Amino acid sequence: MFLYRLEAKGKGFPDSQLFVLAEDEEGAFASAEALLERSALGLITIDEFAIIEKKRAEKGSGYVVETTN
């Protein structure tokens, strides 16, 4: 299993970063798309989807996400 950090841009939702646990890249994209669809109100269109980071899932794995003020 791997921990993926993805970025998504499109219509019907704000630009987003998603974190998913998946066996492979195909599973990561499918899980991330499903998460976006569940969290959005109405129909969405994903224009850009990119894997930013990929790490083996093990104890202590994670990401630091910087915020902008």
Helix content: 10-25%
Computed Rg: 12 Å
Averaged pLDDT: 91
Tally of contiguous helical segments: 1
- Unreliable stretches: none
Report on the architecture of this protein.
By secondary structure, this protein is of the alpha+beta class. It has a domain at 2-9 and 22-56. Helix content is 22%, strand content 42%. The protein contains 1 helix and 3 strands; from the N terminus they run E-E-H-E. A 3-stranded antiparallel beta sheet has the order 2-1-3. A hairpin with a 4-residue loop joins strand 1 and strand 2 (16-22). The protein is globular, with a radius of gyration of 12 Å. The model has no long low-confidence stretch (mean pLDDT 91).
Summarize the structure.
This protein is an alpha+beta fold and 69 residues long. The protein has one helix at 25-39, and strands at 2-11, 16-22, 45-56.
Which key features would you list for this structure?
69 residues, alpha+beta, 22% helix, DUF3906
Write the layout of secondary structure elements.
Elements (H helix, E strand, L loop, with lengths): L1 E10 L4 E7 L2 H15 L5 E12 L13
Antiparallel strand pairs: 1-2, 1-3
Protein name: DUF3906 domain-containing protein
InterPro entries: DUF3906 (IPR024998)
Pfam families: DUF3906 (PF13046)
